[in-house]
Amino acid sequence: MQGMDDTHDDQPDRSSCLFGTASTQHGYFTAAQARACGFDWSALTRHAQSGRFIRVSRGLYRLRDYPSSPREEVAAAWLAVGPTHAVVSHESALDLLELSDIIPDSIHLTVPRSMRYLRPIPGVTIHTLSEPLRPDEVISRKGIRLTSPARTILDTAAAGAAPEQIELAVVQSVRRGMIVPWQLELDARERGRRVGRLVADALQRVAS
Questions:
Q1: What is the rounded distance in angstroms from the CA atom of residue 127 to the CA atom of residue 89?
Q2: Digit-coded pLDDT (tens) for 109-168
Q3: What's the predicted TM-score (pTM) here?
Q4: Nearest one of 45, 53, 92 to 72, comparing CA atoms
Q5: Cα gap 64→121, rounded to integer Å
Q6: Nearest residue to 123 (alpha-carbon basis) of 110, 106, 109
């Protein structure tokens, strides 16, 4: 796919801009991102009515001809909540990081506590934080912002995930060089006895 068809747009540069943005987000883009590329509300409406843009939900669109991709629904949910403030987390982040065999029962997103009154979204579980994530606790994977491997493991463990899934995530992340073992163990202790023990046992398995 070379890009958006410019034959129906008298401003090719803005189409290239929007395609560049959407192509990093599985074909999705927000109304704000479209405006930043030069599409005002009337242009958005016109292209949505013509079918060139698919309106997914309020403020969220998808390029009609962009190829489907695995887990694009995660990207859509993340963008719908707000790409600046939301991050994919917990079981959904484990899945994107390919650190366990867990199959998320919903799309897990973490947002600041100030966004706790978000309107419920079907199939999406919202987690809130009173303290912002540190820069080193957020990474980008396939165009989506998500919690880092270490933060993901700790959040998922604290949320009550099966011990074998936490162990598998720890083992794989260590073997891939994705975490610093001693730092993970130290941070795990701050999450309580259960999480601390789960992580310590998993790290012991790696060392043995």
A1: 8
A2: 999 998 878 888 889 999 999 899 999 999 998 889 999 999 999 999 999 999 999 999
A3: 0.85
A4: 92
A5: 23
A6: 106
